[in-house]
Automatic annotation (TrEMBL):
Keywords from the UniProt entry: ATP synthesis, Cell membrane, CF(1), Hydrogen ion transport, Ion transport, Membrane, Transport
Alphabetized SUPFAM superfamilies for the sequence: ATP synthase (F1-ATPase), gamma subunit
Topology relative to the membrane: Peripheral membrane protein
Protein name stated in the entry: ATP synthase gamma chain
Top-rank lineage group of the source organism: Bacteria
Gene Ontology molecular function: ATP binding; proton-transporting ATP synthase activity, rotational mechanism
GO CC, one annotated term: thylakoid
Subunit field text: F-type ATPases have 2 components, CF(1) - the catalytic core - and CF(0) - the membrane proton channel. CF(1) has five subunits: alpha(3), beta(3), gamma(1), delta(1), epsilon(1). CF(0) has three main subunits: a, b and c.
Organism: Haloferula rosea
Family listed: Belongs to the ATPase gamma chain family.
Function in brief: Produces ATP from ADP in the presence of a proton gradient across the membrane. The gamma chain is believed to be important in regulating ATPase activity and the flow of protons through the CF(0) complex.
InterPro entries for the chain: ATP_synth_F1_ATPase_gsu (IPR035968), ATP_synth_F1_gsu (IPR000131)
Location in the cell: Cell membrane; Membrane; Thylakoid
One record GO biological process: proton motive force-driven plasma membrane ATP synthesis
Length: 299
């Protein structure tokens, strides 16, 4: 009977765990929908901004802008966007592998999220700054991050600024990605990034470039002046979009992980229930045999 009590206790414990993981799954699904809606809402704006930048780079002196300056020597600065909480599967582990393999050995780090911040500091990386971002992501909280990255680059402390984040491809697929943010290369200036299309691999065709360049824009006071004002906005929006992608990836991965945990718990409950019924049936059979044996002995 001790075994039956233990199994009942285990069934109760697993049922409680399944209730918790189910609740976390539903919360993550609701948050993922909000984060995905944020990214989708910025698609049209991103597309128009890119088309204007395509036209600007053809009408302005790119070499004169410091954000376009290519530097041969200097350290790399990397913005690493991870999660504050766990229970989201291998999301942070895969991003950590991408960071270690794709960035330079002496790169300094700016972090958003506690998970990889702790890991990277243990590996001896120099932490320049750490930011906390609310959920859902406000655009205003991307500005100080973009401003710091831009200022450190303009001050000449770093020759390259990169961003490591999880690109939301689908509910079941989040891709760890490392992209160069600064300097902005002229051939990528007006390119539509795949993560702006929420993982739909949006590509800019030649016809799209031609259409953008054929627009009759009038720049006041000049195309160079507009470029100087627009490039910081472009950097701000890129950082914001990466934050939103990372947050959508986090909630998606957590929803999938919690669904898998709930399914495994329910499967385990069925197995324990079956084992409990077998032991209970065996105990009843043993008792009936004992009664029958005693009755025969009394005859």
């Amino acid at each position: 009977m001790a075994n039956l009590r233990d199994i009942r206790r285990r069934i109760k414990s697993v049922k409680n765990t399944a209730q918790i993981t189910r609740a976390m799954q539903l919360v993550a699904a609701a948050k993922m929908k909000k984060a995905q809606d944020q990214a989708v809402a910025g698609r049209d704006y991103a597309d128009l901004l890119n088309k204007v930048l395509v036209n600007l780079k053809e009408n302005a002196d790119e070499e004169s802008h410091p954000l376009l300056e290519q530097r041969e020597e200097g350290k790399e600065l990397v913005l690493v966007i991870s999660t504050d909480k766990g229970l989201c599967g291998p999301l942070n582990t895969n991003l950590g592998k991408a960071v270690r393999s794709d960035i330079s050995a002496d790169a300094d780090i700016v972090t958003v999220g506690r998970k990889l911040r702790t890991q990277l500091t243990k590996l001896g990386r120099d932490l320049v700054a750490d930011f906390e971002v609310k959920d859902p992501v406000p655009f205003a909280e991307a500005r100080p991050i973009a401003k710091l990255l831009t200022q450190l680059f303009l001050d000449g402390k770093y020759s390259k600024v990169s961003v490591a984040f999880n690109n939301f491809v689908s509910t079941l697929n989040q891709e760890p990605t490392v992209v160069q943010l600064l300097p902005i290369t002229s051939d990528k200036l007006g390119e539509k990034r795949s993560y702006e299309g929420m993982g739909n691999d949006v590509k800019v065709e030649e016809t799209d470039h031609a259409a953008a360049l054929s627009k009759d824009y009038l720049f006041e006071p000049s195309s160079q002046g507009v470029l100087e004002s627009l490039l910081p906005l472009y950097i701000n929006f890129q950082v914001y979009q990466m934050l939103v992608e990372s947050r959508a990836s986090e909630h998606s991965a957590r929803m999938v992980a919690m669904k898998a945990a709930t399914d495994n718990a329910n499967k385990f409950i069925k197995e324990l229930t079956l084992e409990y019924n077998k032991l209970r049936q065996a105990a009843i059979t043993a008792e009936l045999l004992e009664i029958t044996t005693a009755m025969k002995a009394m005859e």
